[in-house]
Design brief:
Rossmann fold, 4 helices, 9 strands
Length: about 180
C-alpha cells in the first residue's frame, strides 16, 4: 500500500474512467505525462485523418509505462486492449492494482527491458507509445526497438529532443517536450 501523504494525484481526463485518480509517488523514478499532452495525444488519435485510427479497434502498448497514465487513458477511451510494459515491477504492480480496482480486464502486464529482449508482442500492437527515460537516446531506440517492429505500426514518441524522421506523420511541440507520430 502506498503512503498517500507522499504522493500526487493525476486524474483520468475522459471516457468511462473520467475523474478516477491515479496515484503518483512524489519521489518516483519516472515522470508522468502531463494532462495537456495526454489530452492532445487522444484528440489527435481520434480526430486526425492522417493517422487513420479507430480507437475501439486498437491494441496499444505503453512501452515505458511508469504510472500507466497513457494506457489507462486509452482504456478509458475505449481501446480494445493495452499492454503495459515497464522494466520495474513496482510500477506495473501499481498499474495492475489500479486496473483491478476499476474492474478492467482488457490489459496485459509485462516487465521486459525492450533493449535487451526482442518483444514479439509489439508486432501484435497497432500503436506503441514510448516515453523512455531521459538518458535513452533515439539512436538506441532505433537500433534496439524500432528495427524489430512492423512498418504499419504507429509509434508515438515523447522526447525532449528534436528528432529528424523521414517517416514523420505529425509532430507537436511543447515548451520542453515534443510528440512525434510516425510509422516504424
Amino acid at each position: 500500500m502506498v503512503n498517500t501523504e507522499k504522493c500526487r494525484l493525476m486524474k483520468v481526463i475522459s471516457g468511462k474512467y473520467k475523474g478516477r485518480k491515479i496515484i503518483v509517488e512524489s519521489k518516483s523514478d519516472y515522470r508522468p505525462t502531463l494532462t495537456r499532452i495526454r489530452e492532445d495525444i487522444f484528440n489527435l488519435l481520434s480526430h486526425n485523418n492522417d493517422l487513420n485510427i479507430e480507437l475501439n479497434e486498437v491494441i496499444l502498448c505503453d512501452l515505458f509505462a511508469g504510472t500507466g497514465s497513457i494506457g489507462i487513458e486509452a482504456l478509458s477511451r475505449g481501446v480494445k486492449k493495452v499492454i503495459f510494459n515497464d522494466i520495474e515491477k513496482k510500477h506495473t504492480n501499481k498499474i495492475e492494482e489500479f486496473l483491478k480496482k476499476i474492474n478492467e480486464v482488457n490489459y496485459e502486464i509485462t516487465n521486459f527491458n525492450p533493449y535487451e529482449k526482442k518483444m514479439n508482442i509489439l508486432n501484435s500492437c497497432d500503436i506503441i507509445y514510448m516515453d523512455p527515460p531521459y538518458d535513452h537516446s533515439f539512436e538506441l531506440i532505433q537500433k534496439k526497438i524500432l528495427i524489430n517492429i512492423q512498418s504499419n505500426i504507429l509509434v508515438i514518441l515523447e522526447s525532449s529532443n528534436l528528432i529528424d524522421l523521414d517517416n514523420l506523420i505529425l509532430m507537436k511541440k511543447y515548451k520542453n517536450k515534443n510528440l512525434f507520430f510516425f510509422r516504424a
